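Case study B.
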Amino acid sequence: MYGKKIMEFLKSNGIEFGDIIKVEAEGISEEGELMPSTEANSEDIIILKMKNGYNAGIRFDGAKISKIRKGVPVHEFPHSEITQKKSLPKVTLIYTGGTIGSKLDYKTGGVYMLLKPEELLYEVPELANVAELKVDPLFSISSEDMSYLEWQEIAKRVHEAEKEGSRGVVVTIGTDTMHYASAALSFMLNGIGIPVVLTGAQRSSDRGSSDAFMNLFCSVVLAARSEIKGVGICMHKTSSDSECGFIRGTRARKMHTSRRDAFRPINDGYIATVSYSGEITYVSKDYANPKRDKKGNEPLVGFEKNVALVKAYPNSDPGIIDYYVSKGYKGIIIEGTGLGHTPVSTEHEHYSWLPNIKNAVEKGVIVGMTSQCLYGRVNPNVYRNLRLLSGAGVVYCEDMTPETAYVKLAWLLGNYDADTAKKMLNSNVAGEISSRSDYEDFLV
Amino acid sequence: MEKNHDEAYYKSLGFMCGLEIHQRLATEEKLFCSCSASLDELPPRHEVTRHQRAVAGELGEIDRSAKFEELKDRSFMYKLNDEHACLVDIDEEPPHTMNRKALDIALLLAASMNMKVPAELEPMRKEVVDGSNPSAFQRSTLAGLNGRITVNGNEIEIPSMFLEEESAGIIKNAESYAEYDTSRIGIPLIEIDTFPYIKTPQEAKSVALHIGTLLRLTGLVQRGIGSIRQDVNVSIKGGSRIEIKGLQELADMDKYIENEVVRQQKLLEIAKLLRSRNAEVSESQMDLTEIFASTESKLILSSMKAGGSVLGFRLKNFRGVIGMEVNPGRRLGSEISDYAKMAGVKGIIHGDEDMGKYSISGSELGEIRKRLSLSDNDSFIMVAAKQDVAEKALALAIERAKMAMDIVPPETRAVDNRELYTTRFMRPLPGGSRMYPETDTKPIYVMEEMLISAKRRRISVEEERSRLKSELGSEDMAERMMLSTGLPLYREITENKSIDKQFVANVLLQKFRELQRDGVDVESIEGERVKQIFDMFSEGAVAKQAVEQLLRLAAKEPKTPITDIVKSNGLGRVAGKKLEDLVSKELKGRNLSDKNELSLFIKSFMSEHRLNVDGSELNEIIAKLSKGSKK
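Model:
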């Protein structure tokens, strides 16, 4: 948004965004549409959209600006005239934010959500042949701003959709923390009898090359047609627009900042793949085999917010553990090195995490160990240092990712007593732990 | 083709013409990433496949031409080599900061064309859905406004200049997919636009030439095939704006423009004729497949064997019109066919053609006429292809045929035939709505120092021309040097040096051509080595006559240092005392006052020492010696 000086000028001259104005400054004399500015623009610049479609930033100080005429009112987003087919499977599409379900309105600078099925179908018309869509706008939150409170809301909505007879549910969500959300929903909705497909976009959907279109299409295909029962992430499997991969909600991780195929299964393979022509191929055998069939039961949405995820690294200060203990935290997941280490027998005593961890465990805090290697399984026995930590009461979290372990511990503490939570932490609840490590599940 | 019409003639037609000139800049890195911007060919190592679709632009509407491309429902394959392309180029990583060197060149050009530069440059995304950019848009930034240049005494306005990304090079364009090489994507490109007030096709050529010269004079632009492309916009009264894309041969620009004028005139005549005949285009497509159950037409047969259908529609009162010529070798039928081809058919068959050409029998034709209820004044169009493709093709043909009754459709056209200077339809002319801000990169606040520095270095074609004229003493030489690729080298060689500039120019313009014709690849000699040869000449280390020989040897031995070539071939100059001694030794016993004898001596001396001795110095020494002998 423009600074105070420009805003005041615009207001006192009755100029609004989208109005046609004339600007004369520094030898430039142009007519064009007044555009809003963003935080990237310099303060003394006004943005003019010229007749040729280009924007130019013109210095406000010393410029002569006059209104030529009122702009056309903010456009209506184009709608599709495609009618939905009642005969197709019902799929509920829950919007929670992220680039996938939104359009930037350049006139106001605001984000505009595609709220109606006809708006969405305008963008991805092929959805009309896959499902009868119900669009359920829940909220519009950036991935990085999402908390467990939103995960709880999403879980409840998914449950309602299932009760209302949806064949499947697609949740559009920002990608940065999507794997935390998918883990949380996997636990909260454990045993659900329909496919719950989380999807998003790495390229915003206002560009013709966006991955949103295929991700959305494949996700709706999975929700409408697949035999999957449970929560997972459906995103590009490669950089090409050829197929999406469906990853178990507790096993996914964002492994690249920007690529389309950023999401990968960790210590697991894909559950299924979906081609852009809508063909589903099941890769894993347990896609339709939830541990418990809790259809109809309320989701278990409790979540303990006083759980932390900390990283051990050379020169790290173990005081971080004391800090969380003093703040009354009930659980801590450590992202250790290698097989699950923190510094313990160091020459420099103040770098050892052992006394701090012992103290935490004694105070009843559940301390779980995962590995920053991400791939592979932690092991409490191989080295003396590992035995020291495990002897101090640290729970070794098998082949769980640090993020999933964090979410799981918070969920366990939100729904079970501490003893049960501790016991359940390193046993499988929702596909997050397996007893075998498959050769093929590395760098998938 | 009618030729040499004057300004008044074009004025009477309501001729409008403007240019868009695209020039690749010679930077080391690309505009928004650190990939090499060089053009050396490296084999592709990876491939990604993508789909694209038209999205609503900043103002909500989907651009018509963008939609049109989408209709083609294609996939795009991008080949990449790691040295030339990174994740930014294949739309897998946000752009990095804009290349400062490219920006600097843009500002230099803006200063050279007296343009105003916006205080803050706003990178935009220009939607392209033909696949030529994996992101489905080209990043383009308005970098100059309100400029003007003087061409042949006429002021030409340059309303805008843009700094943008080069697109991907097309490798293969098939029916259902296109293959692109990503090496080129993102090389900085300058687009310079003129107002459409160019008065004649010849003036268009002069303006293009002038801008091309200005670009070259910077010494900061890429050279060679494809590094400069000119798009021409042409319209006449009653006609429409047509953009002819990608003319690489400047020499023929006027001929393409002349042809476009004729094409629009002919299309307007056709429209008038059709209206006077109350022509009509039938919207209903008829299935004619059955007619050809036992056809001998190979074309139709092969399509039917592949499960295709034959569809057609009626053109009421069109008889003879589809076959009318609009340009050499092109008829209205060619224009309609271009549209149909967008759906993926190879072409159309129309009623003004000789059916024998396709081995369509008289009875089949009779049957066609019956099915389509054609009367004598009617014509028809049909296509043979898979049902859905045929339907799409006919819909496009119907659309184009309807336009023939009333307008010249606004289009982007490409060169069709280089010998006949004709063009063909590429896509509808894009509207103005396919722009939206590039929000992934920051706007650029233009610092005052950058503008001052650009102004100080500004280049004027006129000034360069008069400077060359005074240096080379001839308008012709100056003009040839202006157009020559050797100009930057000429400047390097002659800068801050007292050297015979005419000699340098002669070697670069004339001698080089002669040697190249002789099979000596002088063009391959690195500029730096050519400069060394001239430096040695200007320092007196080699004689004028040795320069040609040195060029021959330098071309043959690209790895040998010039100084070694001089030494091992005995090409060092003999001068001063050494020359004097040599001359006086050989002069012994000769009568210097005998003019005939003296000239004979000079002749024989020079034929022996031609490559090592400067003739004028020899003359000076002889004059000195003869003076001495008189004493």
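The CA atoms of residues 202 and 259 of chain A lie 7 Å apart. The remaining cases will be described in the next quarterly update.
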